Amino acid sequence: MSKPQRITVLGATGSIGLSTLDVIARHPDRYQVFALSGFSRLDELLALCVKHRPQCVVVPDAAGAQRMQAGLRAAGLAAEVLVGEEGLCQVAADPSVDAVMAAIVGAAGLRPTLAAVEAGKKVLLANKEALVMSGALFMEAVRRSGALLLPIDSEHNAIFQCLPRDFSPGLGRVGVRRILLTASGGPFRETPLAQLEQVTPEQACAHPNWSMGRKISVDSASMMNKGLELIEACWLFDARPHQVEVVVHRQSVIHSMVDYVDGSVLAQMGNPDMRTPIAHALSWPERIDSGVAPLDLFAVGRLDFEAPDELRFPCLRLARQAAEAGNSAPTMLNAANEVAVAAFLERRIRYPEIARMIEDVVSLEPVVALDALDAVFAADTRARELAGQWLNRHGR
Ligand code: NDP
Ligand code: MG
Predict the structure, then answer these.
(1) Are residues 264 and 344 in the same domain?
(2) Taking the model in full, what pTM does it have?
(3) Could you say which ligand is closest to the alpha carbon of residue 246?
(4) Which keywords appear in this protein's UniProt record, sorted alphabetically (predicted)?
(5) Using one digit for the tens of pLDDT, what is the confidence trace for 130-169?
(6) Pair 185, 64 in one domain
(7) Is 233's C-beta closer than 6 angstroms to any atom of ligand 1?
(8) Residues 6+ apart with CB under 8 A from 214
(9) How do residues 243-256 score in pLDDT, each as one tens digit?
(10) I need a surface site. Which of 189, 192, 291, 330 has the fewest CB within 10 A?
C-alpha cells in the first residue's frame, strides 16, 4: 500500500479545519496530519495536537508559542512550534507535504495559501477571500507552479464535479452555457425589510442549513458570500460574471449546477455538510467515506428555486459590479466587507450599514490594475483605512 499523504491544515481550529480533521481521522491509512494552525483558540489547538499528533504546529506569536510548548511538553508531545505568517508559509510549502487545506478566514490566509500554491502542492481551497483579493496573480501562480487547485466551497466543488473531468479553462470549449450558483438566502430571506435595521449578530449567525464560522455566517446572511463566490467562480472556471447566475434554493440540497448548450443541466446534490466537498477534494479523483449521512430525498420532499432580490441583498449587486470592474475592485470590496462584518459583530454598526459602508468605500477609490502582490496588499490596506474612517464617522 502507498504511504499516507501528509496534510497541512491551515485554520485547524475553525469550522472547516475541524471537518477536515474529522474526515482525515476516518482514513488513517490514507492521510496523516503534518501541521495544524490556530489563532485565538490555542487550548483547542493543543487538544487537536494531542489527537492528531502533527509534526508542526503554528501559533500567532511568541506568547502563544510558549504556552503551546508547555502544553505539548505536559502531553508528552514533541511537535515543532512555529510562529506567525512565516510559520504558516513554511508548513504550507514544506517539501514533505502533499496537500494543504487553506481554511484560514479572510485576507490573513492569502500569503500562506499562495505559499502552498507556489510550492506546487495539492491545494484544497476554502479560503475564498484569498482568491477574490488576488485572482489574476493567484491563478497565474497556479499555472506557473503546476499546483492542483481543488475547490472546497460547496458550490464550487459541486460545479467542479459537474464539469468534464478534463476541464481546462474556457467554458464554451466544453459546451457550458452558464453556471447556476445556488444560495440558501440565509436567515433573512423573508425578514420584513424594515426589521433588518434591528437584526443582531446572533440572528445573522444562525444559518438555517449550514454551521459555519461567524464571518462567513454574516456573509451568508447579507449574501456577500454569494457575491464573493461569484468572483471565485469566475477565477476557478474562467467564466465571465454574466455567465454565473445566482439561484436562491432554500433547502441547500443542490449545491450548484452547470447548464450545457444542449439543454442538459447537471446538479450535484447532498446533505449540507462540508465533509462531502472536503472528502471529495482530499481523495480526488477517487471517492472515500466522509461520514455524511445519505441524502433522504423523501425527507427533503421538495426543491424550491427563486431569483435573488437585490433590494434585500445589495451586497450581491456590489459584488457583481466589482466582478465586472475587475482589477482592484474585488480586493477593495473584500477588505471593506471584512471591516464591516467585524464592526457588525462588535455591534458598532447595524446590519444594513454593512452594504452602505462597502458601497461608500469602493466608490471612493478609482479601480487600478494589480500587477504584484504588493499592489494587492496596498489596495487591501487602503480599503481598510477608508472603512475605518467610515466607521469613525458613522459607527458607535
Ligand atoms: P472559522 O472562523 O470557523 O475558522 C477560521 C480559522 O482561521 C480558525 O482556525 C482561526 O483560528 C483561523 N484564523 C482566524 N484569523 C486568523 C489570522 N489572522 N491568522 C491566522 N489564522 C487565523 O471559519 P470557517 O472555518 O467557517 O471558514 C474558513 C474559510 O473557509 C473562510 O474563508 C470561509 O469563507 C471558507 N468557507 C467556509 C465554509 C464553512 O462551511 N464554514 C464553507 C465554504 C467556505 P482560531 O479559531 O484559533 O482563532
Ligand atoms: Mg459556499
Answers:
(1) no
(2) 0.98
(3) 2
(4) Isomerase, Isoprene biosynthesis, Magnesium, Manganese, Metal-binding, NADP, Oxidoreductase
(5) 999 999 999 999 999 999 999 999 999 999 999 998 887 7
(6) no
(7) no
(8) 201, 205, 345
(9) 999 999 999 999 99
(10) 192
